[in-house]
From TrEMBL:
GO BP: RNA modification
NCBIfam families named among the record's database cross-references: PPR
Organism: Gossypium gossypioides
Keywords, comma-separated and alphabetical: Repeat
Ranges for the PPR repeats: 253-287
Name of protein: DYW domain-containing protein
Recorded GO MF terms: RNA binding; zinc ion binding
Length: 560
């Protein structure tokens, strides 16, 4: 190139820079620094090449240094090819905002869809889904990559359970819009985002449609699609279909095993989860951090305390790794759920790192379930320091005081919430009937079938009384009389969802419900009886696990 004079031409130089940067970055920089007046095209090539390097941390700094040289060079200006790579490399939200300002400064409002998609991905990465969607809506003819970017954005950046539901709904609506464009055909990335949204919502019909689409259009059932389908069927209450997908996968990586172990766990099959954990090790797959988490959680759901503790110990003893915060969180939950609250507290205090809010909340939840007020108050004190604005922390302690009729303390905690401007997240339940999702809040009367639902609730209440059900009014955490407490229990969100399903769905179809909070003991007992009285399988996914109600029994065996 030197002898033929090609080093004076931009295009061959860009090829040389790209190749050199992939083999020896210092050599590429040496070549670049010898170019008398590098064009913006060459700068863009080198910035992009540098950021595709494996040593991302070091090269990010170098890329932005090159960008700074562009800004100082009065003979060139950044263009639409300069920014996409830089947005991917942004290490903080503030850096990205500054870069966005530069886009507006140098490109104005007339930048192309390539830059717009990069902006979309950046804002989605930092949880700014509203901004990301606004940017998406400004793109006239989004291509498949742009659709996938927005759909995938809805699968990440969720900060609360309430957002989880609404964002997943948005993902399904967006996919429906995408289908109206005949020029855009879904691929593996699209299907993973769609199936993940179905998993969050428990939208089985839409999830099955996605699976059929994969089969009909010969979309490759790779690790990512297979893992998403396993997770979806598990979270929709169809563990047998999840197992079928797992067994049919031609190859399985650690992600597939993690999804299947997690599925066994939330359905209460702790022994099967442990068996699969052992099988995975036999296949010479090395467990990752998530593997240990889902396996310990599986043990926690069914009270396999000793087995769960052995998994925790194996992290260091068998694999030479130091347990992380999430592993200690599983250990605290495992011990606390089994009633070993004092031991859980000792483990938490003896951790080599500082416990985070999740661990203290797990301890507070265990203290509440097992009535250990002293530990509960200690846990809340730490939680208020770490997360003073999280409503669940206050609610757990308030509920603990209410369960032992300490109403003055209940008022004190609720006043504390009011003073901080904190509102309790309302209980809600989703139920799928004939392919449509219906949401209910406690005491909800906004549904078009409201009259029929409440009429059915009255009938269910009478049938429950005939079968000897006595409402567990201790679950009503207000200082009111017993009759009012019984009424309050009747209108819990899952009761409304069940009543609607009894009225609106086929009498032989399973009733599938997703609840955003832990199911209360009275609703748990009532649902067992309803499954027997009406001869319906009722599958409830609360914030902790699945409950399969059939013929008056529950799969959790009252351990949740």
């Amino acid at each position: 190139m030197v002898t033929t004079g090609l080093t004076h031409h931009t295009y061959p130089l860009s090829k040389l820079l790209y190749l050199s940067s992939t083999l020896a970055l210092p050599h590429a920089l040496t070549i670049f620094n010898q170019i008398p007046n590098p064009t913006i095209f060459l700068y863009n090539t080198l910035i992009s090449s540098v950021l595709s390097s494996t040593n991302r941390k070091c090269e990010t700094h170098l890329a932005f240094s090159l960008y700074e040289r562009v800004l100082w060079d009065k003979t060139i200006r950044p263009n639409s090819h300069t920014y996409p790579s830089l947005f991917k490399a942004c290490g903080s939200h503030l850096h990205g905002l500054a870069l966005h300002a530069h886009v507006l400064k140098f490109l104005g409002l007339a930048y192309d869809d390539f830059v717009q998609t990069s902006l979309l991905n950046f804002y989605a990465k930092y949880g700014k889904l509203g901004v990301a969607r606004c940017l998406f809506d400004q793109i006239r003819n989004p291509d498949l990559a742009t659709w996938n970017s927005m759909l995938s954005a809805y699968g990440s950046g969720v900060t609360s359970e309430e957002e989880d539901t609404s964002v997943s709904m948005e993902a399904l609506c967006l996919f429906t819009e995408m289908q109206k464009n005949p020029l855009v055909k879904p691929n593996e990335v699209t299907l993973v985002a769609l199936v993940s949204a179905c998993a969050n919502l428990g939208a089985l019909c839409q999830g099955i449609w996605a699976h059929v689409y994969v089969l009909n259009y010969n979309i490759k059932l790779n690790y990512h699609v297979g893992t998403a389908l396993i997770d979806m069927y598990s979270k929709c209450g169809c563990l047998d279909l999840a197992c079928q997908v797992f067994d049919e996968l031609p190859e399985r990586d650690i992600l597939c095993y993690n999804a299947m172990i997690g599925g066994f766990g939330i359905h209460g099959y702790g022994h099967k989860a442990l068996q699969l954990f052992e099988k995975m090790k036999f296949q010479r797959l090395v467990p990752d951090d998530v593997t240990f988490v889902v396996t310990m959680c599986a043990c926690s759901h069914v009270g396999l305390v000793d087995e769960g503790c052995k998994v925790f110990e194996s992290i260091n003893e068998d694999y030479g790794k130091e347990p992380k915060l999430e592993h200690y969180g599983c250990l605290i939950d495992l011990l606390g759920r089994a009633g070993r609250v004092q031991e859980a507290e000792e483990k938490l205090k003896g951790m080599p790192m500082k416990p985070n809010a999740i661990l203290w909340r797990s301890l507070l939840g265990a203290a509440r379930v097992h009535g250990n007020l002293q530990v509960g108050e200690i846990a809340l004190k730490h939680l208020l320091e770490l997360e003073p604005e999280t409503s669940g922390n206050y609610v757990l302690l308030s509920n603990m005081y209410a369960s032992i009729s300490r109403w003055e303390d209940v008022k004190r905690v609720r006043k504390l919430m009011k003073d901080h401007g904190i509102n309790k997240m309302p209980g809600s339940s989703l139920v799928e009937v004939n392919g449509a999702m219906h949401q209910f809040l406690i005491g909800d009367k906004t549904h078009p079938w409201s009259k029929r639902i409440y009429s059915k609730l009255e009938e269910v209440g009478k049938r429950l009384q005939q079968y000897g059900h006595k409402p567990r009014t201790k679950e009503v955490l207000f200082d009111i009389d017993e009759e009012e407490k019984e009424d309050a229990l009747t209108y819990h969100s899952e009761r409304l969802a069940i009543a609607f399903a009894l009225v609106a769905s086929d009498s032989t179809a399973p009733i599938r419900i997703i609840k955003n909070l832990r199911v209360c003991s009275d609703c748990h007992e009532s649902t067992k009886l309803i499954s027997m009285i009406y001869g319906r399988d009722i599958i409830v996914r609360d914030r902790i696990r699945f409950h399969h109600f059939k013929n008056g029994t529950c799969s959790c065996r009252d351990y949740w």
